[in-house]
Amino acid sequence: MTRQTGLVPAMRYRDVPGTVDWLCKAFGCTPLRYGFDADGRIASAEVMFGSSPIAIGPVKGSAFDHLMVQPDRIGGVATQYNYLIVSDADAHCARSKAAGAQIVLPPHDDGNGARLYACKDREGHLWTFGTYDPLNAGAHTNETRGRLARAARWGWSHAIPVTLTMGLVLALAGGGLVMSDAYDARHALGVAEAARAQSERETKTAIAIISEHEAGIAEAVLESGELSAKLLAEHARRTKAEQDAARAIAKVQSEIEAANRALADEHSKLLLAQQSTNEMREQLADERKAREALAASLEEAEKDIADERQERESSDRQVRALAEALMAEQAPRTIDLATARTGLPAGDKMAVPSRAHVTTAAATSAAEPWATFQDPRNRFSFQYPAGRFQPDPSPLNDHGSVFLSRDGHAQLLVYGGDNVSGQSIEAYRRQLIAESFSDAKFDYVPVRKTWFVLSGKQGDETFYLRIAFACDGRTLQGWGLRYPLTERNVYDRVVEDIHRSYKQQSGACG
Question: Is 169 left (phi over 0), alpha (psi -120 to 50) or beta?
């Protein structure tokens, strides 16, 4: 059922959520509901003390901001207080004190059978708790409350005549006055005089009480005026302090904005300087690349000249070998490498024909004959010492041919096939080193646009490997020689002679 009339005390606090928690802990309140602001934070609340609600509102943000002040703004005094009914004032006081309440009046008897105490909460508001319940008071309490209410309505000016009249009536009734000639008239007058004197004394006493009350009122009015003056002075001081603080904040903000503008200018200058530095670095990098490209072009030109020189020397050697062969009346012979052992280091799978042709020619010296190896697809050729190397009869795979020295100490490997996966020369070189020469010590590793060489030591052997990319990188080919470190004086010269005789055929790409 909706309540038609009622009373809900309303209190203002700076910390609404903290106050709700504290009231529940200290006084035994229970939360009823919360109100939230636009940011989702608790702005107000309602709690219950028994069956009575209490409203908790914020100090700022309401229509009462200019009408009310907090106790700490007026020296800690309060202008109102709440009275809450409890069954045991002493136990409730102990609970409040344990929660941090400031006990300003300890538990005591009020002289009418009730017991009460007073305290201040965390923000200085005054609360009183007692066992007196106006709705459940006895008949004596009701009579006393009625007299007090009538006295308050009539005022002391009405109360004094009533008192005098009642005194006179009581005096007359106590004297047992009877309107009869049997009584002495002088005795009646004496009684009346005594009653009048008693009334005068009571009147003087009442006047003294009224004078004291009026003095107290005057003193309270004076103190209220002084307090108002102090409040006004404090308000003026705080207003001036707030204005001074606002001006100081505005000055600081202005200085910060000026500093930010100066910082932005410096940042712009720094960006311009950095941009200029980057442009100079890019220009230097372009010049470095141009020099490197020029050096590479010169190196390629030198290589081409060296290749032409080697081709001329190889051609001359072949002519001399052919002449010697004719003179020795030795017919050319063909070596079938169909069953030769093939092998290729890690890399692309290359299609290599199943047969290769090696044409024997006379050696450059009478002691050791040399033969010409011709790639089956006529992509490249070179000469090798046929008296020292012979084909390995056990096939390994379809990626090349293997020649073994007659003592089994050295290997001559020949490669040729398609670059199926389209690897670049640098990618193939890195893979080859990682998978086949990770533990090698290199002493000669030139890299050119279309070929590279890997030469060095691996274990107790020396190796030399030359790989060339042809036909715009679609094919790769080459040869390699591996021999013991103890026989370098023999095979280092063989490597040089094979290198000089190596020729890559032009127009063999198809």
Answer: alpha
Two structure tokens written together for 143: 């009579």
Residue reference for tokens 């009478």: 366
Q: What is the DSSP letter of 167?
A: H
Higher pLDDT, 53 or 376: 53
Q: Are 29 and 54 in contact (CB under 8 A)?
A: yes
Q: How many CB atoms lie within 10 A of CB 271?
A: 10
User: Does residue 93 contact residue 107 with C-beta atoms inside 8 Å?
Assistant: yes
**Cα 390 to Cα 189: distance, rounded to the nearest angstrom:** 174
- Residue 109 has phi, psi (to 5 degrees) of -85, 140
Q: Alpha-carbon distance 337 to 393, whole Å? A: 8
- Residues with Cβ within 8 Å of 396's Cβ and at least 6 positions away in sequence, in order, are 341, 342, 343, 402
d(CA 414, CA 480): 7
List the chain domain ranges: 155-328, 331-504
HSE-up (13 A, CA, CB side) for residue 433: 15
Tokens in use for 125? 């508001």
pLDDT per residue over 315-364, tens digit each?
567 656 665 655 554 333 333 333 333 334 444 433 333 333 343 333 33
Q: How many whole angstroms separate alpha carbon 73 and alpha carbon 124?
A: 10
CATH topology of domain 331-504: Protein Transport Mog1p; Chain A (3.40.1000)
Contact present, 299 and 292 (Cβ < 8 Å): no
**pTM of this prediction?**
0.34
Longest dimension (CA), the chain: 203
Closest CA to 335 of 389, 406, 278: 389
Tell me: the pLDDT tens digits for 285-325?
999 998 898 888 788 878 878 877 786 677 567 656 665 65
